[in-house]
Design goal:
Elements lengths: L4 E2 L9 H10 L18 H18 L5 E6 L3 H12 L5 E6 L2 H10 L4 E7 L23 E4 L1 E2 L4 E2 L16 E4 L16 E5 L10 E6 L16 H6 L9 H16 L2 H21 L5 E2 L11 E6 L5 H10 L2 E2 L10 E4 L6 H18 L1
Parallel strand pairs: 1-13, 3-4, 3-5, 5-8, 8-9
Antiparallel strand pairs: 2-10, 6-7, 9-10, 11-12, 12-14
Bound molecules: pyridoxal-5'-phosphate (PLP).
Pyridoxal-5'-phosphate binds next to helix 3.
EC number: 2.6.1.52
Cofactor: pyridoxal 5'-phosphate
InterPro entries: Aminotrans_V_dom, Aminotrans_V_PyrdxlP_BS, Pser_aminoTfrase, PyrdxlP-dep_Trfase, PyrdxlP-dep_Trfase_major, PyrdxlP-dep_Trfase_small
Length: 366
């Protein structure tokens, strides 16, 4: 076996016990005489898998009963468009707090269906901080207020030190893109109207998204749309309006079980703090060899972009890291440099291996 520590931002590392179990179960499901991925989504075997996954996710995230949980094909980007279609009346506006690349994507997708008001933006600051709540200009009649809980590329996350993980936005429901930080710490879902994310960062494989939505919001008319784009229709049919991504749903379900066995979101919050603290302190203690430019109050626990003072060493850094069993460290093309993603499936020992390597590399090239 030569599996490396995988710091990829997404698709990302999955827990090894989950991969082993999927491998073991792949050929035949119980006494079904076929694989779970070869069986009807409406048959008893998959229905059981689907409902267990939902109840495990509800337990894991303490989802209140007045919220529906959807497992839908398509990535987070799809939902950035669908939320406007479903919750904004024609001509209505929605408020967006822009804190990085994915907030921009959200605005681009929603812009076709809703009047976008950018309430605040961190762009002038290179997305290295989050504009203080007092500076946000919220509309009086917004359909919703959208934030990106964790910016996967810019490494900026809403943290308690900044104010609240879920800022108070008044009347309009708060919609939050949690693609890259869901299940990394306890979350008070009741503060949100809608929480969504693609699974491929912290929850499972790419190809399925999770949408957690307050049921009363589904009574809004929204805009004319096909049934297949309607969250209300999907909820009514238990996310089986059409054939759901059964393989992805099943694998995500295994990840939920693993997270529960490991101690749940409180335990992952503890591990995340520990992993992030170790990496940031290594960067900050490197006498400028490495640097991360994000305001410490909002540094992401999940995605840590960092730069070598001498970008000419980037290629050597990546090659030597790979040689040492550390992969997925190349930064996103928007920022360049490096990025280490520290999702739930990445153990502390992976971060130790990375920081040991970084110190050693710094000594040899500093
Ligand atoms: C990855 C990511 C997305 C995009 O997800 P897709 O599944 O590629 O559509 C959106 N928002 C955030 C915060 C992400 O990390």
């Amino acid at each position: 076996m030569s599996r490396a520590h995988n710091f990829s931002a997404g698709p990302a590392a999955l827990p090894e016990p989950v991969l082993r179990r999927a491998q073991q179960e792949l050929l035949e499901w119980g006494d079904a005489r076929a694989s779970i991925v070869e069986l009807s989504h409406r048959g008893p075997e998959f229905m059981q898998v689907a409902s267990e996954a939902e109840s495990d996710l509800r337990n894991l995230l303490s989802v209140p009963d007045d919220y529906g949980v959807l497992f839908l094909a398509g990535g987070a980007t799809t939902h950035q468009a669908l939320m406007a279609l479903n919750f904004a009346a024609p001509g209505q506006c929605a408020d967006y707090v822009l804190t990085g690349h994915w907030g921009k994507t959200a605005i681009r997708q929603a812009g076709a269906y809703v009047r976008v008001n950018i309430s605040a933006s961190g762009e002038d600051d290179g997305f290295r901080s989050i504009p203080p709540r007092e500076s946000w200009r919220l509309s009086r009649d917004a359909a919703y207020v959208h934030i990106t809980a964790n910016e996967t590329i810019h490494g900026v996350e809403f943290r308690p030190a900044w104010g609240e993980p879920a800022p108070d936005v008044g009347e309009a429901p708060l919609f939050a893109d949690f693609s890259s930080s869901i299940a990394s710490e306890p979350l008070d879902i009741s503060r949100y109207g809608l929480v969504y994310g693609g699974a491929q960062k912290n929850l499972g494989p790419v190809g399925v998204s999770i949408v957690i939505v307050r049921r009363d919001l589904l009574e809004r008319a929204g805009q004319p749309r096909a049934d297949i784009f309607s969250y209300a229709s999907h909820l009514k049919s238990d996310s089986m309006l059409n054939t759901p991504p059964t393989w992805n749903w099943y694998l995500a379900g295994l990840v939920f079980k693993w997270m529960i066995e490991e101690g749940g979101v409180r335990e992952f919050a503890r591990r995340s703090e520990q992993k992030a603290a170790l990496l940031y302190s290594t960067i900050d203690g490197s006498a400028g060899f490495y640097r991360n430019d994000v305001d410490p109050a909002v540094r992401s626990r999940m995605n840590v972009p960092f730069f070598l003072a001498d970008a000419g060493l980037d290629a050597a850094f990546l090659a030597e890291a790979r040689e040492g069993g550390l992969i997925g460290l190349k930064g996103h093309r928007v920022l360049g440099g490096m990025r280490a993603s520290l999702y739930n499936a990445l153990p502390l020992e992976g971060v130790r291996a990375l920081t040991d390597f970084m110190q050693d590399f710094g000594r040899r090239h500093g």
